[in-house]
Specification:
CATH class of one domain: Alpha Beta
Largest sheet: 5 strands, mixed
Shape: rod-shaped
CATH topology of one domain: Heat Shock Protein 90
Distance between the termini: 35 Å
Structural class: alpha+beta
Order of helices and strands: HHHHHHHEHHEEHEEHEE
Strand content: 5-15%
Radius of gyration: 63 Å
CATH architecture of one domain: 2-Layer Sandwich
Strand order of the largest sheet: 2-4-5-7-6
Length: 570
């Protein structure tokens, strides 16, 4: 056996180049060590910073929004709940005072009680308005002082003019000619105080309206700023996440796809966050491991190729040796048998019974040796080449095999029953030899008291294109279960040569032929209602062409009794 680099020709075959394993030719750098250098943030920190920034911006936006909304609500409350009602009530108070003055003058002029209706209505309205303004005096700046002036003036006008004038008209006294001037002098300060109140409330109303407008504009500005900041934050966060996370992941994924597509020599270098670096270095470690395994597998393949070539050469030499040995042994054996027979014929009358027996033993041994050599030669020829594989009808092959066994069948009075058989790919000569062996065995190992019956049937294995299972059954002596594996071993016999003839190579040859056709052969051990043996085997269509082997040269002078190896033997 030659070494891995020696092919027997004296020349060393070149090795395949080794692949680079990792950075610097060694193992890849540990990603955790690189990630712990401090220069690479983990994903948790990156997402934490982004989340913290988003939370801070959200808190600031919430605080500013709350403050702006509070200002807006305060301005709206000042205008709608305080200044507005005060302005409306002041106008109502002014109208009520004018109604009172008009009612008193009309009553003085007409003396009719109906003229006091406007005075009475104005008095009630004045009281309601005064009560309303009193409730607002603490919430409207300056309202209390001005309301006190108005109430003082109204009381003075009532006591100094309105009530005496009404009492005088009701009592029928003449009206003092100076009373109107007195009433005017008392009512003008009230009118002026009310006007001042209205002017001040209007000023405050305009200020509150401006404050409301300012607060509303501030809320709108805050909303716009918050929206712009949120948009900018999203854009910035997207850019940061893309550059810090997505881009490194995409780059790592592209490198991994390159390794998957076959570029296993390209190193995987990751960047970015700590977890991505660790993942990249783990992928690099896996790539380096794959490269090492590929190198190891290629070395193994190189060795296997060399060993296969050595075995092929050895097989060719052995086949040539087997053929030459079997061929060269034929002549000495024929010479031994021939001269023994000549010796018996010429000197038979001079030999005693024991001498004749010795000569018969010698002739029988030479003939048996010749049959063994022929069987070995036939056994070695099986499986050399598939050049003879053709599509053939199995029924025709079985018919030809049965015709070869016609003499022993007729002698035993037996019957061969052939069922439906398929057409399949195979070597006709080998399959013919297979069925001839199996039919011959079935006829030979029969029971003396009953004619042999051989049945051959086929069933598909799964779908018909997946192969067929062939069964060859007989009603002979059968095979004990403990011998079902032994019968397929070459030269193994279950009976003595004096009981059943043969070399013990028939079923071994059948096994080799079946395996050459991609199937397997076995003895069916399932219980049968009748005695006998069932040999089952499968024939599978060839899927991959087998290698062509060198065929041994043929021998035109091969003796006629070479066909002895095709006798059915166990």
């Amino acid at each position: 056996m030659t070494g891995p680099a020696d092919t027997g020709t004296g020349r060393a075959r070149p090795r395949r180049p080794r692949l680079r394993v990792g950075k610097g030719g060694g193992l890849p750098v540990d990603g955790r060590a690189r990630a712990d250098e401090g220069r690479h943030w983990p994903l948790a920190r990156i997402f934490g910073v982004v989340a913290a920034t988003a939370l801070l911006l959200a808190v600031i936006a919430a605080v500013v929004g709350t403050v702006s909304l509070s200002r807006l609500n305060a301005a709206r409350a000042d205008l709608l709940d305080e200044i507005g009602p005060a302005v409306r009530t002041g106008q109502t108070l002014e109208t009520a005072l004018v109604d009172q003055e008009t009612g008193v003058r009309g009553f003085q002029l007409s003396g009719r009680e109906e003229a006091l209706a406007s005075y009475a209505g104005g008095l009630r309205t004045e009281q309601d308005a005064t009560a309303t303004l009193t409730g607002l005096r603490d919430r409207v700046p300056g309202l209390g002082e001005r309301l006190d002036r108005i109430e003082t003036g109204i009381d003075a006008w009532h006591t100094g003019y309105a009530e005496p004038a009404i009492a005088a008209v009701r009592e029928g006294r003449p009206v003092d000619s100076g009373a109107p001037d007195t009433g005017r002098s008392l009512f003008d300060p009230v009118r002026a105080a009310v006007d001042d109140l209205q002017t001040d409330l209007e000023t405050q109303r305009l200020a509150a309206r401006e404050k409301l407008d300012t607060a509303s504009a501030f809320v709108s500005a805050v909303g716009i700023v918050v929206a712009v900041v949120a948009l900018l934050f999203l854009v910035a966060a997207g850019v940061v996440l893309r550059r810090a996370v997505l881009h490194p992941i995409s780059r790592l994924a592209a490198q991994v796809r390159g390794v998957v597509s076959g570029r296993v020599t390209d190193e995987v270098e990751a960047s970015g966050p700590r977890e991505i670096i660790m993942l990249g270095d783990d992928v690099e470690a896996m790539r380096a491991h794959i490269v090492r395994e590929l190198d190891r597998a290629k070395d193994t393949a190189d060795r296997l190729d060399e060993q296969t070539r050595d075995l092929e050469r050895s097989n060719r030499d052995l086949e040539q040796f087997a053929y030459v040995a079997s061929h060269d042994l034929q002549e000495p054996l024929r010479k031994v048998a021939s001269f023994c027979q000549l010796l018996q014929r010429r000197y038979g009358d001079k030999l005693d019974e024991r001498g004749d027996q010795y000569i018969e033993f010698a002739v029988d041994g030479a003939q048996r040796m010749q049959r063994l050599i022929n069987d070995l030669l036939a056994f070695s020829r099986v499986g050399r080449t598939t050049a003879g594989f053709t599509t053939l009808a199995l029924r025709d092959v079985v018919a030809a095999a049965a015709e070869q066994q016609e003499a022993p069948r007729a002698e035993a009075g037996g019957e061969i029953v052939v069922g439906e058989l398929p057409s399949l790919m195979g070597d006709r000569q080998l399959l013919l030899q297979l069925f001839a062996n199996l039919i011959g065995n079935a006829l030979k190992f029969r029971r003396p008291e009953e004619p042999p019956v051989v049945r051959i049937a086929a069933t598909p294995v799964g779908r018909p294109e997946e192969g067929w299972e062939i069964a060859v059954s007989d009603n002979g002596i059968g095979i004990e279960p403990e011998y079902v594996d032994k019968v397929f071993v070459i030269f193994q016999r279950l009976h003595g040569r004096d009981v059943y003839t043969g070399t013990g190579i028939g079923l071994a040859l059948a096994k080799k032929i079946v395996e050459f056709h991609g199937g397997r052969i076995w003895v069916d051990t399932d219980p049968r209602p009748e005695p006998g043996t069932t040999i089952r085997f499968t024939l599978v269509p060839p899927r991959v062409p087998r290698g062509q082997a060198v065929a041994a040269p043929t021998d035109e002078a091969e003796p006629a009794d070479m066909s002895a190896g095709r006798e059915g033997t166990r």
